[in-house]
Amino acid sequence: MRSPIYIKISDQKLSIENPGGLPTGITIEDLKKPHRSILRNPKIANTLYNLGYIEKWGIGTLKIIKECITNGNGEPIFNSNGIFKVEITSRYRKNLDNKEEATLNYIRERGLTSRRELEKVLKLKESTVRKLLEKLQNKGLIVKEGRGKKVKYKLALI
User: Which domain holds residue 66?
Assistant: First the structure.
């Protein structure tokens, strides 16, 4: 099957889809333990192996799982219903409360946003919004631009 691989990136997750699905004989559970590899394009696979981009056949998904857990993303979600899909959740989006989510959603929609604007929209006190913005900055989710009264906040590149 000749179809492109789709890569979708959002604030919440990275999603990679391969319309070919998993090879016959390989299950989602197989991907979570050492398994045999079925090469769809042996020439490309062997070239990547010889160049050192592939260490060993059948361990790529194990490495992905290990790195995601180590990085704080949690285990990736694998799915195969004619289309093979892997989703990796953003580590930053897991432990957000409702106020943090609302703040990020507003900044995403509006772009550069002031503290005062957030106070009005979220109907929160100045001190609460200051703490909220500081918390989101410390998590690396937003960045501050400008100085003094001209300070605005925008989403950080995650």
Answer: 6-91
- Identify whether 1 is part of a domain: no
Q: Is residue 82 part of a domain?
A: yes
Token look-up 């900055």 returns: 137
Is the pTM higher than 0.85?
no
What DSSP letter does each residue of 20-72 carry, written as one string? T-SPTT--TGGGGS------SSHHHHHHHHHTTS--STT-HHHHHHHHHHHHT
Is residue 24 included in any domain, yes or no? yes
Q: Give residues with Cβ within 8 angstroms of 110, minimum separation 6.
A: 117
- CA–CA gap between residue 40 and residue 154 (Å, rounded): 43
Please provide the size of the chain in residues.
Answer: 158
The reply to whether 80 and 41 lie within a common domain is yes
The string of pLDDT tens digits covering residues 100-144 is 989 988 998 888 999 999 999 999 999 999 999 999 988 878 899
